[in-house]
Amino acid sequence: MTSSTDDGAQTLDDVRVRYLVTRAALRAARTLIAPEAKPEKRLEILMECHGMMQAARGPGSPLSFGEFRRALKGDLAVLLPEGVTPLDLEGTHVVDQDGQVTEDAFDLDLEQEMLLRLLHKIGKTAAVVSDREFQSELDQETVFTLLRKHGEQAVYEAGRRDLIRCPAGSVNELADLRLPPLVADFYRDIPYDSAYRGWWFACPICRWPMRIAIRNNAGTTVGVARCWHTPHAEMGASYLFSLPTDSGAPRLLPELAPPRPSGREAVLHPDLGDVPTALPAEGHKALTRGIWRYTTIPGLPELALHDQLAARGVKVSLWPGLDAFDLLVEVGPKRGKKTSFKVDIKDYTSAMTLAALVHAQEGDRGGADWLVLPDHHGGHVPLLSGVCAKYDMQVTTASAFGEMVCEKAGVNWA
């Protein structure tokens, strides 16, 4: 595929085409459901998104504005031009049954952004890339750079822990965190699609504002609150609430949660605790979505695996060398040769995008020899194992890794 520019025709590879299609569809869908958008501004943004879609598809695959609008409610892969493999876009919808933008669409957009930016950095794509397109990825790079600024491991670790443990909270609570001022600026007002009449709810697992939707169910209108991270919602962070007749706060009722796993996976499985209570949006802030999704979310299994191994007497270091990788685990006698495991933990919705990232950087940039996935992504292990084996990396789930290490250390995991 080609795109005409002032400098001549440049090849747009499949990665960039999928990224542009996802980004255009996602932005258009968000514009359609944004309650505060004025009609003229809404039309302007939709036309920009349509133009981006046309640029991705090229002159050989025209798509009318009306077709673009209608396609936003269907399978995302339909928007791709002929000849481009859909991969994870197939079967993905941008808008769900509640008329809200889906979690998976957000994740695919951010993950494709990370891949395309890496390819651009290492010179494997000729596509012109603007900083504006990659703002989410740039935000995350800025945060990590600021945390590393003083070159002190303890300062970096404390700041990274705060971003994981406290992705949202009251202004007073956030002021007490050990974060550089410029990092604290990435806490913003509670998003409109996570609030209902000035109230919001923190996910009991990740503590970030849950998404809010109003659903018509058998003639009855009810509110729905569920974590933006699909695995958390599927673990039980999904609730219903009756719409208050006054300005009072809604009260959540939990939907039926799946049974807690047994055996080795029970060790790292999160405890939902009490049903979340409503918090006022005024006076509270939350991390930007990209930092929450790719710092807080993978950080939860990082901390959980670290803490559980340490509690069993295993020597384990968190983010050594200012985050060269996530965990350094050492097993062996007090005196003598130890077996070391350099671990990188990833939580990607798209196994194919993660595999492409590993391949593009020829393994792990920090030198990790183990890629560990959260238990809910256990189905990704076979695909990633085939790619990682080329770079002397092994792949497994967090619980399987914890059990293996404890067995070598001569202690019980579960």
From TrEMBL:
Domain of life from the UniProt record = Bacteria
**InterPro entries, alphabetically?**
pPIWI_RE_REase
Question: Which residue intervals define the domain REase associating with pPIWI RE in the entry?
Answer: 299-412
Name the chain's protein. REase associating with pPIWI RE domain-containing protein
